[in-house]
Design goal:
Elements (H helix, E strand, L loop, with lengths): L1 H17 L4 H18 L3 H5 L2 H5 L4 E10 L5 E12 L5 E7 L5 H18 L5 E6 L8 H15 L8 E4 L6 H15 L19 H19 L8 E4 L4 H12 L3 E7 L2 E5 L5 H13 L5 H6 L3 E5 L10 E3 L9 H9 L4 E3 L8 H9 L3 E3 L1 H4 L1 H16 L5 H23 E2 L2 E2 L1 H20 L3
Parallel strand pairs: 3-4, 3-5, 6-7, 6-10, 10-11, 11-12
Antiparallel strand pairs: 1-2, 2-4, 7-8, 8-9, 13-14
Helix pairs in contact: 1-2, 2-5, 2-17, 5-15, 5-17, 6-7, 8-9, 8-15, 8-16, 9-10, 12-13, 15-16, 16-17
Bound molecules: NADPH dihydro-nicotinamide-adenine-dinucleotide phosphate (NDP) and (2Z)-2-iminopentanedioic acid.
The site of (2Z)-2-iminopentanedioic acid has 12 residues, from strand 3, helix 5 and helix 15.
Length: 449
């Protein structure tokens, strides 16, 4: 369709010009624009209201300096941002990332993806993301605390339980959320559910830590079942060893799958016989308790090999779950997976595949769940945490897990509805169209705002 390609190129040229050098943001928008364009071009009402142009321009970006003091008395200044992208469907919602690679481009891509992801959950949440180029890895406990307090001092006036509700992401787990929350309630002198991922004794929801990984496996199972396959006995390669990866591994084990790999930024471990329950407990303690390196897992167990500075995608597997970071699985990795007969890719991370890898998997008909569908379980349980905070109640593990499963099934249903072509589902198109449409309808209803 030459007209379609021309429209897409024209739109992307404009977006690139308006947002120079923001390559991650371009990549995220281009994927969505390619999915929605055929349908968008038929909607004169959306086109004349410039929905696509407005939906790719953030409502606002708050950029601020975070000054803090090291244990040695040196002064440091980091950069921090909060991208409040779109609140058509509810208050801004999305995580905070602390990692040296954080830039405004990375946060804009994440916040843009979050709009559509949150729309897919069916809960009233807009899209946002924030974070800093701060590296928590080589910092002491007290340094992390002082950094979090200083960041919240800069951020607190822009957030609120009905305005914007941050949560965790890479480098921001329950420790950081607790420091951020403590500072928020000190500054505001009021307790409100303004962050999610809190400790269970102070307003946190059951299953929030596990929700992204569990949800990713629930979604993968739905995707396989819909195509006449199952998860039991399947081999799974997982990247990462953070919150998302570890609980994807846990749920995959519970479902009878064989987990062959985990990784961190130093390399990956190949568990030839498949991860077992004791080993998973060891890795949890290693990563969550001691903040150690994944190489130590191989040091501890015979039969577990460590591959330094390598990614796990050359290991033969039937299912791949990238759960570390963006663009961690490229065209060459996708070729390796295909060469080994991969049948499904379920993204735990946000945009872990390069555009080349996405296109190759689509061309070869591999089932591919994009993060905005398959990792939506985390923010969905964040939404449930907000509900519990507002109602001043707390639900049991079973209650929250049941709701999570229902939400993941409903997201799968929406992907099928908008992405099924001749009995095979393109989940990338399905998720993009379903997520986009709801936000577009709300924006149209609001008029020119
Ligand atoms: P964590 O900080 O808990 O873990 C991140 C993991 O990814 C670590 O193993 C880390 O290794 C690895 N990693 C991070 N950056 C890189 C990099 N540049 N290269 C190689 N490895 C890297 O984060 P989460 O588990 O929370 O997040 C993982 C992914 O899931 C992210 O894409 C995040 O946006 C996404 N996500 C998270 C949700 C959540 O609720 N937490 C919800 C939905 C999506 P190392 O420790 O060596 O840096
Ligand atoms: O990418 C994501 O969905 C998250 N980091 C979770 C966001 C949230 O608000 O729970």
């Amino acid at each position: 369709m030459p007209g379609l390609q021309r429209e897409l190129d024209h739109f992307m040229d404009g977006l690139r010009k308006r947002n120079p050098y923001q390559t991650e943001f371009h990549q995220a928008v281009e994927e969505v624009a390619a999915s929605v364009m055929p349908w968008y071009l038929q909607r004169d009402d959306y086109r004349s209201a410039q929905i696509l142009e407005r939906l790719t321009e953030p409502d606002r970006i708050i950029a601020f300096r975070v000054s803090w003091e090291t244990d040695g008395g040196d002064i440091r200044a980091n950069r921090a941002w909060r991208v409040q992208f779109n609140h058509a469907l509810g208050p801004y919602k999305g995580g905070l990332r602390f990692h040296p690679t954080v830039t405004d481009s990375v946060l804009k891509f994440l916040a843009f993806e979050q709009i559509l992801k949150n729309s897919l959950t069916g809960l009233p949440m807009g899209g946002a993301k924030g974070g800093s180029n701060f590296n928590p890895k080589d910092k002491s406990e007290r340094e992390v605390m002082r950094f979090c307090q200083s960041l919240m001092t800069g951020l607190h006036r822009y957030i609120g339980e009905d305005v914007d509700i941050p949560a965790g992401d890479i480098g921001v787990g329950s420790r950081e959320i607790s420091y951020l929350f403590g500072q928020y309630i000190r500054l505001q002198n009021r307790w409100a559910g303004v962050l999610t991922g809190k400790g269970s004794s102070f307003g946190g929801s059951a299953v929030r830590t596990e929700a992204t990984g569990y949800g990713c496996v629930y979604f993968c199972e739905q995707m396989l079942n819909h195509h006449g396959e199952g998860l039991e006995g399947r081999t799974v390669a997982i990247s990462g060893s953070g919150d998302v990866a570890l609980y994807a591994a846990e749920k995959a084990l519970q479902k009878g799958a064989r987990v062959l790999t985990l990784s961190d930024s130093g390399g990956f471990v190949h568990i030839r016989d498949g991860l077992d329950g004791n080993q998973l407990e060891f890795v949890k303690e290693l990563k969550e308790g001691r903040r150690g390196r994944i190489s130590e897992f191989a040091d501890r167990y015979a039969g577990v090999e460590f591959h330094r500075n390598a990614r796990p995608w050359a290991v033969g597997c039937e299912i791949a779950m990238p759960c570390a970071t963006q663009n961690e699985l490229d065209l060459e990795d996708a070729k390796s997976l295909l060469g080994n007969g991969v049948m499904a890719v379920s993204e735990g991370a946000n945009m872990p595949l390069t555009a080349g890898a996405v296109h190759l998997l689509a061309a070869r008909g591999v089932l591919h769940a994009p993060g905005k569908a398959s990792n939506a379980g985390g923010v969905a349980v964040s939404g449930l945490e907000q509900s519990q905070n507002s109602m001043r109640i707390s639900w049991s593990r079973e209650e929250v897990d049941g709701r999570l499963q229902t939400i993941m099934s409903e997201i799968h249903r929406q992907c099928v509805r908008h992405g099924e072509r001749k009995g095979r589902v393109n989940y990338v198109d399905g998720a993009n169209i379903a997520g986009f449409k709801k936000v577009a309808d709300a924006m149209l209803a609001y008029g020119v705002v």
